[in-house]
């Protein structure tokens, strides 16, 4: 779970502060096109930071509620990362978001 949370905060940082570099890694946009999409990076950053914070706060729930919330959120991360990774260049989303969430989901059910 730590890797999932850390990954969401890392992506939020990259999307907010390092959007030109991340956008270049993920898309075929160039120059002015990247600058025009900076607002999207900030929007994605707020989403990722919110997911990371939500997962941290889920540890304050009762054990049963925590398990349910974390399982649902992890499953949704896997699904959205699969969709996201299918339309980008490289494997940053696959490695940085999908894989950690999938592993955490498996380990959550193995506990």
Set down the secondary structure blueprint.
Blueprint: H1 2-17, H2 19-26, H3 32-36, H4 38-58, H5 63-86, H6 92-110
Brief characterization of the structure:
This protein is mainly α. The chain is built from six helices and no strands. The chain is elongated.
State the helical fraction: over 70%
Quaternary state of this entry equals single chain
Helix and strand succession? HHHHHH
Poorly predicted runs of 5 or more residues: none
Assess the beta-strand content as a share of residues.
under 5%
Distance between the termini: 13 Å
Total strands: 0
Mean pLDDT: 93
Gyration radius over CA: 15 Å
Quickly count the helices: 6
Shape: elongated
Structural class: mainly alpha
* Major beta sheet summary: none
Would you kindly provide a written description of the structure presented here, covering whatever features stand out?
With 111 residues, the chain is an all-alpha fold. It is built from six helices and no strands. Helix 1 (2-17) crosses helix 2, helix 1 (2-17) runs antiparallel to helix 4 (38-58) and helix 5 (63-86) runs antiparallel to helix 6. The mean pLDDT is 93.
Kindly list the characteristics that best describe this protein.
mainly alpha; 6 helices; elongated
